Prior knowledge:
By secondary structure, this protein is mainly alpha-helical. The chain contains eleven helices and no strands. It has helices at 2-5, 12-19, 23-29, 33-49, 62-77, 80-92, 97-121, 131-142, 144-151, 158-176, 200-209. Helix 2 packs across helix 3, helix 4 runs parallel beside helix 7 (97-121) and helix 8 packs antiparallel against helix 10 (158-176).
Amino acid sequence: MFMQHGFGGTSMEAVAQTARISKRTLYARYPDKSTLFSEVLGGLVRRWLVPLDRFDSEQDNLEDILLALARHLTTSSLTPESVSVNRLIIFESQRRPELGRLANNAARKPAIAAIASILSRRGSELRVIDYEMAAEQFLGLTVGHGVHLANFGIELTPDEMDRYVRASVDLFLSGARRCDLPRTPGGRPIRGNESNDGDSASKAARDQTRP
């Protein structure tokens, strides 16, 4: 109902009627409309963030992890439901700034924390110190463009979005990744915990550095 009628146009009574519950039951669970709206946002965020840990596999290289993560976040943020909520928040926050703060606390901050956690676990490959700032920059680079266009009703094709996401991840890593890591012949950085004895790629990288 929030997406259809806006925050101001949605009443607790109408929500109770639509849900076929009494107003007493609704108010017992959600004391006011802001609390109810926060729960709506929370539901979207939980769908967004619950699977993020699956992208952080020790066997995968950082570029593949970030690319998969960026694709997931972009796809999630561009669903019709997510775009509608985003537009609603932008419109309503002009009159109700608390909604903007609510969205930031319920949605953006948890997303930043989850991304920062993934980056920190790969800290040996990065030259950043502030992982939360890096997460903000990663989110802005990979997701911001598509969301900005969606707010204006402009949709990118899947190929256009994928090219943009790939370029954004590459740009992020160009600035955030350490430059002194040994690399495989294909250019992939070799992590410090990869085996030097059994890993043929590591051996090839060592051979390249010999005079």
